[in-house]
User: Fold these one by one.
Assistant:
Number 1:
Amino acid sequence: MKLLRFFLIGVYFGIVLVKGEVISWFRIQEMFHFQSFYMYGVIGSAVLVGALSVALIKRFQMTSIDGEAVKLAGKPFNRAGNLAGGIIFGLGWALAGACPGPLYALLGVGYWTILLAIAGALLGVISYGYLKPRLPH
Amino acid sequence: MIEFLSQSWPWYVSGPLLGLMVPLLLILGNKEFGISSSLRHMCAAALPLKADYFRYNWKDALWNLVLVAGLIVGAAIAAVGLDGGSAPAISDGARELFSAWGIESITELQPREIFALQNIATPTAIVSLLVGGFLVGFGARYANGCTSGHAIMGLSLLNFGSLVAVIGFFIGGLLVSHLVVPWVLAL
């Protein structure tokens, strides 16, 4: 059952997010105030491991365990969307002290108040869905 | 092993383990890492929305929703079994800052001023969580990715658009963390 694999990868991700403290509001504000190297170290080394993995997969033309060629499409460049959307996302990231992964992880930890932020995020997505045709991309 | 995992992890343990999400998903599932699209799939699956943005076969993205279900369970396991809900090991400088912001004590993962259930109806919690969440959802979909899809997966692919998005994340985050958060805490 292939979906079980995704569930288990999700379990792994949840444990790392919580134990890595990246779901903590305190860690996010500490990062934006340059009061510790911690979050920069986490994000930087995560990207390093990710980039190295991608390079190895490309270099050795590795396949997935199902024998398929690994798809590395990436996302299309979209100047207004990437920048304006990115800034709007950043405003929320600092205000809530959480990005989408942590929103879910905090629910798992038992912070029920995060449901308010998840509801807000869903409203944000719905608003974007309706405004999309009128926004510059 | 459990004892070892229950300690506070240094950045050079947390970061690489987080980065392993990229090859885990590529090799085990042939999927590119990303979390915020799950919000869109939930809307498409559960709500009768007429906008084109929500009219697609969300079942093709079921893997992403299953990943999120696992993520919630994993977080619960970390909190219950691996001491994951304890206060983060933040710096002395950060402690001074939070104390100046009026946060009384740091005894758990999150500040009680925003996240305690009895404070949910306060202006501080409503602005932080509801407005903050709205901006996270709107911005992530407008940017076509969040910290997972752009900062980790996109930068790993050396994707230029992802770099632009991550710069945007920091512009927005710096502005709010310095100018708005102290004000919201004082509401």
Number 2:
Amino acid sequence: MTAPVVLEETTAESAALTVVRARHPGRWITGAAVAVLLAMAGNALVTNPAWDWPVVGEYLFHPSVLHAVLFTVELTALGIALGFLLGTVLALMRLSRVPLLASVAWGYVWLFRSVPLILQLLFWYNLAALYKQISFGVPFGPAFLSVGTMDLIGPVTAAALGLALHQAAYAAEIVRGGFLSVDPGQLEAAAALGIPRARQILRIQLPQAMRSIVPAAGNEIIGLVKGTSVVYIMALPELFYQVQVIYNRTGRVIAMLLVAAIWYLVLTTVLSVGQYYVERRFGRGLARPGPSARMRRLRRALAVRRAAPRRGGEGGPR
Amino acid sequence: MSGEFMVDVRGVHKSYGPLEVLRGVDLRVRPGEVTVIIGPSGSGKSTLLRGINHLEKIDRGYIAIDGEFVGYRRSGNRLHELKEREILRRRTHIGFVFQNFNLFPHLTVRQNVTEAPISAQRRPRDEVEALAAELLEQVGLSGKADAYPRQLSGGQQQRVAIARALALRPKVVLFDEPTSALDPELVGEVLEVMKALARGGTTMIVVTHEIGFAREVADTVAFMDAGRIVEQGPPPRVLDRPEHDRTRAFLGRVL
């Protein structure tokens, strides 16, 4: 009917039309409400003297606390490095064509995932009570070298070993999952090209498996940073044990727990940032963008601010 | 066995459980010849091709490339299966191009092409990289050496896969439905590269549904159905004057 005419008018006028964005008053109201709640929480943290902020400041960089942080980092590093090394071996055993190897790996994962970590640690701690001597020699035959268990496995070794063996069970499943996530066509192509077996695993499968291993491994590392706190039962001076020692002496419980919490936050933050870069490294050649778009936006925002210090700050609604 | 045939397939049988996929296949390809295998899906074409480079183990019969068994060593009347290392070494004589390309997504185009010659054949890197540049130019992708596979179209990826197969300097190149995963407008560029190879004297076995390609390029067309080669011969004879009803029925459906 009149449609053609209308169409013509619209095209003629369209140059002069401006677009008015829809308003979202609801977003502003919820935003404001959350801001008020945040301010209240912040106020409650800062103004309540029971939080003992001066004491937190006093002990945050106290040498004994710093040593404990270092020890926690060491335990984590050992646990993760040894755990993933053994875990990778277990995963390859599990995927191997030798049935006994696969069963042994399965049995290991079953056992070490089933027994609580704290129990495992106490077993290792008390290993000397079970076996006084550890001998190296012919299986079931004569021994060439015998060492007292106490000398070989002290509390620190027991803790690191306990964490690593426990971690290995989880790492094995993560690594195995990573290998299973690689398209079988990749291995077929590598085999068709005659690429040697070890090279197929290291050059073709592993880098692709890493894409799904890294996020899960990041979880595990962050979990272990905090998980190291269970070794306090062995009276080892890691972060959690150390702050307990201090507050048992000074009675400033809340402040010392805050000190520990702040350090755990710092450690996990550093690890999260590290994970972002590792993931980006293994995401090479893949169209899907890296893990955290928020991280990129943050970096871009910081770069803009550095380039134009006066302008980027406000960040109005978008 | 003599050097007369580059590929010599005799009496090959293969079953998956109760399902017989190959039921006595004979196929001979002379050096420099192009053989195109056509046939309905499930007829055993791909299994045969994968048997030739021992990606599938055959149950009976034998397959030889240039007088050498791929997966076995003969002593007297027995065929001993070889160790994986030796099978991998012999596979480098055979190029294989997959339907889904199977390029390594985390490696650049150049690394995809140079990986196997360096790690499997232990040829010097300089020589292999020069060859890779040459091959990429040959398939029309000289500008893409540093791109990653995902940044390329399907047709470009398949051309990289062809260059990767050729980098081994294989005695024969096997193509397993190389254009079936491609958008129709990209099929032509891949077929052009394959035609150029055929003209250059590469020995090829191609499983495909592209009857036009078979007609133009093949020295021999083999029609497979239900695990057997029903008939084979020069393209005009098999494609235009097929002797068997099954061939006629198949061609009637695809042409």
